[in-house]
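I would love for you to help me understand the pair of lines that follows before we discuss the fold together.
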Amino acid sequence: MTKIVNVGLVQMSCTRDKETNLAKAIGLVREAASRGAQIICLQELFTSLYFCDTEDYEHFKLAEPVPGPSTERLQEVARETGAVIIASLFEKRAQGIYHNTTAVIDAGGAYLGKYRKMHIPDDPAFYEKFYFTPGDLGYRVFETRFARIGVLICWDQWYPEAARLTALRGAEILFYPTAIGWATTQDEATNAEQFNGWQTIQRSHAVANGIHVVSVNRVGFEQEGAMKFWGGSFIANPFGRILYQASHDQEEIHVEALDLDKTDFYRTHWPFMRDRRIDSYGDLVKRYLDE
């Protein structure tokens, strides 16, 4: 017997209007479900342009409670389609406390919970520390109708510790809603190097943990044309082989059948989990090992 799950990814461009983006995403989720997708992942912060390119207090008005209005709309869609929905939102937790948060909605429309982004970047045009409080819910898995899934968000994808801890909690698939792009002034060699590094680190999480990885990025020009979000959403099998990769410049919906029993096969034949020396990793909780 095999455990096959149809995973859908939605790679889309966004506008300044929140309602337009939400309605568009809902339409694309319905389309993915009509193609047989059972678990559908949307990109990071899909209800808006990527607003962290500037430090602007007006952008806090984009935030909402989670659960809240957007999750309620998506719960209706989940009930209608029978699909699990992974939705990345700008959460207003309390006055002055905001998070970059992903909600997970089960196939019957039940709200299963949320993950708050743990690693918050601060780079030119990615000023997330101005907006987001670091996550405080830890690394989580969600028992959906079709699979036990783990969710991490964008900058989390560079940290093997986050992937490992999520896998150790029993995740069968690891999802990464993402928003990452190239400055349009950048040369093609640098673009290729950055994309390859981004994809390689995530493929390594698939290999090290023996699970499928699904990474969903936005696409299109933003920041008055200064930033091209590079798309390239992809799915990797438990040994890092690319099963599907989206284009760098087109909106795309893709549905891929994943055999979750491959985890047992790869973990048995390449027993990295078995051979972990957990007695030797205590220093990982230190910032740096000074001599």
Observations:
- The longest strand covers residues 84-94.
- The domain at 4-285 is CATH 3.60.110.10 (Nitrilase/N-carbamoyl-D-aminoacid amidohydrolase).
